[in-house]
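Cross-check.
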Amino acid sequence: YSGLTTILLSGNISTYPTLCAKVTASFSVLSDTINAVKSTLVEMKRNDISNVIIQLQKSESEKLNLTAALHLERLRLRNSELDVAVRVNDGDDDDEGDDDGRTIQLLKDGIKSLQSNISKVVELINEAMDELRCIAVEENE
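Predicted model, tokenized:
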């Protein structure tokens, strides 16, 4: 998330694919590790834990998709705001102002909606993590 903020502030959007590649590589390693753990748990007949991990992975996947959509909306908003600023600076004040304002507001509303959805998914992730902690505590008693 901070990587995107840096990109948006710097205006150097060409670095976004590199950021995505680094994050994707990290997620791939983590995913492989989690899948190996899940397989071991299934072999050990620990469906209680493996089911929570499956739900956790689904929620993490959903969060990743929502975060990618949020990034795109933030980039679109930035580009729309820059387009408006360029037209205003060039003195090109035509009928596009109302459309620009509506577009910017729609993008801002979309960003708020995505942020809300991400928060809901984060709650599901936290619940799954709490459930795993409870299972671990019960195992250690």
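The chain has a mean pLDDT of 88. The two ends are 39 Å apart (CA to CA). Passed to J.P. for a second look.
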